[in-house]
Specification:
Strand content of chain A: 15-25%
Oligomer: homodimer
């Protein structure tokens, strides 16, 4: 049965998932595997941002850059360079040329009904799906509706209404703008600066505060800023865009330059000219377009878990860690509970591992020294010169051997500098 | 006070360590840090095989080869090649040009007395050190003597008395033999085949049994053999050397070709000509030259822990895992016990992580499927296509996040195929 067959009457499912990213998929698959009947609603690509617009394309772009950078630093191997055209082809391969039919098929064949369109709540346990063809259908959940809609980009007021790039354009890059201004200094900003620089853009970063990757240990920003500067990425701290003009801008599709020169007046009084601007000013849970009002709720209610028992938000949409692996972990925990299985409950929340794939990479597990101190832990800090640990891979083996130590008394702060 | 000052009278120490490899160093440093007075005896380089003849030079040689191999497989970066001369220079750098003065200094400055020479037991808690200058001195331990002498290569009878390479020659390679025959199929044989092939040797491997890396999952041998074959490494299974001649052979120093052509008659009836032979037929605990007879013991007594309370063997010399990180772990456990500190005793022995740095790399944690089944575990096997896991680094992050699962109910078999 396809969704279209019953467009006029409400279809009934055990569980309705809004958003077919990795978190929604993980949950729907777990529920279907148990013999229940879940539906998943998606208005864009099945597989979500992670598969098409975030993790996967960004890592596809960054891995050859990392290898080329390694050849530059490593004696015994010829220096190699990135090939821009080949790099974009690799990205296209890794995102299956933005074709999600394989992913839809694997969900359907596992017993998950995929409903294409924009899903909105329309009452208790009810979801209305607005198809691209203009049609609307209603789904009902006998048990629960779970929101896994991910995030939506923050747009600083000064950029409101001006067509520029967001992170999806950056990972989908087709045109390489000669001059690119990046607004922001988080993981997306720093990773995109890395690949856009390698692709040939002259990158300028406008950073409101005084550091790159502010959530990281302070030394990370110093090291990364030095490397960016060596790579001719122009990092400007304590600088904001105060006025923006783009007379000829218009949307040309993802990854295409939006057209015409952008003029940016900065808080330092300078006017920058750019061929494109990337907004990497953070993302917030995508809760605004699912019509929470229909059940008398606001996004804030969802984030603070003031929801009826049949409604849940998981992953990025739930507002906790914006990390795919953490969201999948939540989805597995939720599925187990939903299915009445015994949970392998953790006595303490495990420390969160994460990596920013710049050159050098910034990898971390658990809290920073400051955060741990503020939380009342007695912190001991160790420093290891990574160059003295022979080989990163060997070191990784040792980290695995020691991994249990992190778990006996978390959080132990473990930073892996370049 | 240097050792030479008191050559005629016995010097007294709290602890005497035979062998200044990483295991001996770890132990001596822990004891010295506690205010006790340890001595460490070494006849070769302080730092041991790991620093000069095994882990460090082999990984120094293999890392650029790995990166060059990656450029071959990875779209988006130009193919790069290994530069043989630069590769050997990198190896020399990484082993500090075989100069151990820095390592001796750091031991001495930490309160460890370094005694140069060949150490042998000469009675209860007594050690005789035979210096290179022909002098002898006697050391006494008030508490314990710990043997951390590492391993010594096994020599198949057919090679007895014939000058050929052992693993130390292979890591110390100066001359690149045009035709190299490697006897063996373990980690040393496979890693050395990888770098000697990259340096330009035509490598033939004679393998007694039917697999490479016999301790690993069976599929590992199949994959590795295919890759070796693609790289023109000639692997001959079920083949042994039955007769060997090298009329003009003589020792020229580590890493130098021993001179003259070697003729090897194989069990298949063929005669191979080679410019060098590498024996990689395993190593056994180096317990034969420390004069155990003086206290009425044999090497077997030591391996089975039938020793008086003052005598211990740790690390490779103790005959357990031949892995530096496992030996260091033992040394830390021993030091804690010796110093009367509370041990963080593990309720079960942690699964052992290890890597063989071939192309592809072979990484493992814990038991193989067969070994686990034989040990009575109910084994579930999962297979993941590594190419489908996007990026090894991303996957490693996930492994770290999951690491605790290995520890809840070890052993979980975790194989990371290419």
């Amino acid at each position: 049965m396809t969704a279209a067959d019953t467009a006029t009457t409400a279809q009934e499912f055990d569980l309705i998932v809004l958003g077919a990213g990795p978190i929604g998929e993980t949950l729907a698959l777990a529920v279907a595997k148990h013999g229940l009947n879940p539906a998943i609603v998606e208005h864009d690509l099945v597989g979500g941002d992670c598969a098409y617009y975030a993790c996967k394309p960004s890592k596809a772009l960054l891995r050859p850059i990392e290898v080329a950078a390694t050849t530059k630093h490593l004696r015994g191997v010829e220096t190699s360079h990135v090939g821009a055209d080949e790099l974009l082809k690799r990205r296209d391969e890794q995102v299956s040329n933005y074709d999600d039919s394989g992913q839809e098929e694997s969900l359907e064949s596992a017993g998950v009904t995929v409903v294409r369109g924009h899903g909105q709540l329309s009452g208790e346990r009810a979801v209305e799906v607005h198809g691209r063809d203009g049609g609307t259908q209603t789904l009902r959940a006998s048990r629960a509706v779970v929101v896994t809609t991910g995030t939506t980009p923050n747009i600083p007021p000064v950029f409101e209404g001006i067509p520029v790039w967001d992170s999806q354009d950056a990972t989908s890059v087709q045109d390489v703008p000669a001059r690119l201004v990046i607004i922001g200094a988080g993981a997306v900003a720093c990773e995109a600066a890395t690949w856009m620089n390698s692709l040939g853009s002259k990158v300028t970063m406008l950073v409101r505060e005084g550091a790159l990757l502010r959530g990281a240990e302070p030394f990370v920003s110093d090291i990364l800023t030095d490397h960016f500067s060596d790579a001719s990425i122009d990092v400007r701290f304590f600088t904001e865009a105060t006025q923006v003009q783009r007379p000829d801008g218009m949307d040309q599709g993802l990854g295409k330059v939006k057209g015409g020169t952008v003029s940016i007046r900065t808080s330092e009084g300078e006017t920058l000219q750019a061929d494109e601007v990337l907004l990497a000013t953070g993302r917030r849970p995508a809760l605004e377009s699912i019509n929470l009002e229909s059940i008398g709720l606001s996004p804030q209610d969802v984030l603070e878990q003031r929801t009826p028992g049949w409604l849940h938000a998981l992953g990025d949409a739930g507002g906790k860690h914006q990390l795919t692996h953490m969201g999948k972990y939540q989805a597995k925990q939720f599925a187990a509970e939903f299915l009445g299985q015994q949970l392998h409950e953790l006595s303490t929340e495990p420390p969160t591992p994460q990596v920013v794939f710049t050159d050098p990479q910034v990898a971390s597990v658990g809290l920073t020294e400051d955060t741990a101190t503020d939380a009342g832990y007695d912190v001991v800090t160790g420093e290891v010169d990574f160059a003295g640990v022979w080989e990163p891979v060997y070191y990784a083996t040792m980290l695995l051997a020691k991994a249990r130590l992190w778990l006996i008394k978390p959080p132990v702060v473990c930073w892996v500098p370049p």
